[in-house]
Amino acid sequence: MALLKILFFALGAAAGTTNYRKCAIDTDVAIIGGGGSGAYAAVRLREDFGKKIVVVEKENRLGGHTQAWYDPVTGEAFDYGVEAFTNITASTEFFARFNVAVRAPDFSQSQTLYADFENGKTVNYTPPSSEEATAAMGRYREQWHKYGGLMLPTSSGFPAGDDIPEDLLLTWDEFARKFDLEAASPMIWNTVGVDLKAALMIDVWKAYYPTLTGFQPASGDNSEIFQKAAQLLGNDVLYESEVVWAKRSNGGVRLRAKSKDGNTTEINAKRLLVSIGPETLKPGVFDLDDEELAVFSSTTGSRYYTGIVSHPSLPAQQVANVVPEAMAANYLAYPTVPFLAGFKYKGNSSTGPVYRSLVVAPSDMNPEDAKSIVRSSLQNLMDTGTVPAGDANQLDFKAFADHGIMYRRWSVDQLRGGIASRANALQGLRSTWYTGAYWMNNNAAMLWNTTDAILPTMLETI
Ligand SMILES: Cc1cc2nc3c(=O)[nH]c(=O)nc-3n(C[C@H](O)[C@H](O)[C@H](O)COP(=O)(O)OP(=O)(O)OC[C@H]3O[C@@H](n4cnc5c(N)ncnc54)[C@H](O)[C@@H]3O)c2cc1C
Ligand SMILES: *[C@@H]1O[C@H](CO)[C@@H](O)[C@H](O)[C@H]1NC(C)=O
Ligand SMILES: *[C@@H]1O[C@H](CO)[C@@H](O)[C@H](O)[C@H]1NC(C)=O
Ligand SMILES: *[C@@H]1O[C@H](CO)[C@@H](O)[C@H](O)[C@H]1NC(C)=O
Ligand SMILES: *[C@@H]1O[C@H](CO)[C@@H](O)[C@H](O)[C@H]1NC(C)=O
After folding, report:
1. In DSSP terms, which residues pair with 259 in a beta bridge?
2. Measured between alpha carbons, how far is 194 from 103 in angstroms, rounded to an integer?
3. Do 297 and 279 contact (CB within 8 A), yes or no?
4. 154 — phi, psi (to 5°)?
5. pLDDT digits (tens, 9 = 90+) for 108-138
6. Ligand at shortest distance from the CA of 217
7. Coiled-coil ranges per the record (predicted)?
8. To 10 degrees, the CA torsion angle through 30, 58, 48, 36?
C-alpha cells in the first residue's frame, strides 16, 4: 500500500512538472503516416476536397523515405533516400502547387570502379553501351505498358488463377531472356536496387517505372516539397506521435495518439487512412481481424538501409559492387542479399567526398549489422589494395536510416490464389482505407497517382 502511494505521488509530481497536453478533436479523416503518400493525401484532402484532417506521424518531419543529410557548414543537402521524381501529372501538379521549381535530375557523372565487395578485388566489368541499354529499355517499356490496365491505379481488378498473364509471373531472369531485356537490368538495379535475383516480372514492373523524364527540385533538396507541405498543414500534423489505442467501426473510428513527450490526442474521425506499411500495424492496438493479419503478413521482401558516409580511403568516384559472374556481358548476375550496393559518390561536402550507401538486407536485420556490412565491404576493398589502405572503423556515418521493407513480393502461388484481390477487399472495412507502397509500388509519384484514385472512393459516403 505504501509503495502504491509513493508511486501515485511520483506520478503526480511528474505530471505537475511536465508540460504535456491533452486534447480531443473531431475530424473527417485521420491519416497514419506523413511520408510520401500520407503527406500528399493530407494536402489534397484539406485543400482540394475541403475535409478536416489530422496526420499522426512518428518522426519530427514529413516525407518518410525522402531524406537528406545537411552539411553543417554549407547547409548543402545530400539526398540519401528519394533521388528523383517521375514526371507525371500528379507530380508536376504537386510541385506546382507549392511553387517548387524543378530541373532535370543532376546525377553527378563520375567514373565507376567495379569491385566484388565479398573479397574486395576489382572486377573487369563493362556495363552495356548506352545504345544497348536504351534499346533494351525501350523493349521493357513496351512490355510494361501492356500491364498498365491491370495494375493502375490500384490493381483493384487484378485477376487470379490462370487469368493472370503468364509473362507477369515469370522470374525477372526468364522474362528478361524472353524479351531480350538483359541490357536494361543494370539500369534498373542501379536505380531502384530491387533484388533482381528474387523478383518476378510483376515485382520489377512495380519497382521500375520506365520513365522518359524525371525531375528534382531546383534546390537539389528532395525534402523541400515536404517542408512546404509541413508549413501548410501546420498543427494538423501530430509529430513524434503514434496511435496507442483504436476502435474501428462502420460508423467511424476513434483513436488515441500519444507523442513521445506524453501529449495525448483523442481523435474522432469519420475515416481512417493508413499510409504506413500495414504489416507494421500493431494487431492489439488496431484490433486486426484474422483476414487483415493474414493479408498484411503475406508478403516477403528485403529491408533497406541507406546512409551518407565518408572515409579518407574512398576515391572521389563511384565504387560499385559487382559479382565476377557479371563479366562478359552477363547482365543478370547480382550480389546475394545481404549486400552493400556501392559507395555512390554524391559530391564533396565541407569535410570531403561523401557517398550514399545502400544496404539490401534480410527483413530481420538490425541497423548495427547493416552498418557492419558497409564497414566490412570497405575493409575488403582496402585490404586488397583496390582503394588505399586504412581502418574501416573510421568510416564516418553522417546519416543512416532504416527504410523498412521495400518491394514486397507475393509468390506465384499466392498471386494465383487471389491474394491481390483479398488485399484490395480490405479497403473500406470498418471505415479504414489504405494507401502507400504496400498497395502499389515504390515510386513516390506513382503513389500520388494511386492516392488520387483512392481518395474520392474513400470520401463517397461522407
Ligand atoms: C532509399 C530509397 C530511395 C528511394 N528513391 C526513390 C526515388 O528516387 N524516386 C521515387 O519515386 N521513389 C523512391 N523511393 C520510394 C519512395 O520513397 C516510396 O515509394 C514512397 O516514399 C512510399 O511512400 P509511403 O507513404 O508508402 O511511405 P513512406 O514515405 O515511408 O512514409 C511512411 C511514413 O509513416 C511514418 N510512420 C511509420 N510508422 C509509423 C507509425 N507507426 N505511426 C505514425 N507514423 C509512422 C514514417 O515516419 C513515414 O513518414 C525510394 C525509397 C527508398 C527507401
Ligand atoms: C506537447 O505539448 C507541448 C505543450 O503544448 C508542446 O510544447 C510540445 O511541442 C508537444 N509535443 C509534440 C511532440 O508535439
Ligand atoms: C494514373 O491513374 C490513372 C487512373 O486513375 C491511370 O489511367 C493513369 O495511367 C495513371 N498514370 C500514370 C502515369 O501512372
Ligand atoms: C515533364 O514532362 C512534360 C511533358 O509531359 C515536359 O513538358 C516537361 O518539360 C517535363 N519536365 C521535366 C523537368 O523534365
Ligand atoms: C571533389 O574533391 C576532389 C578532391 O578531393 C576533386 O578531385 C574533385 O574534382 C571534387 N569533385 C567535385 C564534384 O567537386
Report:
1. 241
2. 26
3. yes
4. -130, 0
5. 667 999 999 999 999 999 999 999 999 999 9
6. 4
7. none
8. -130
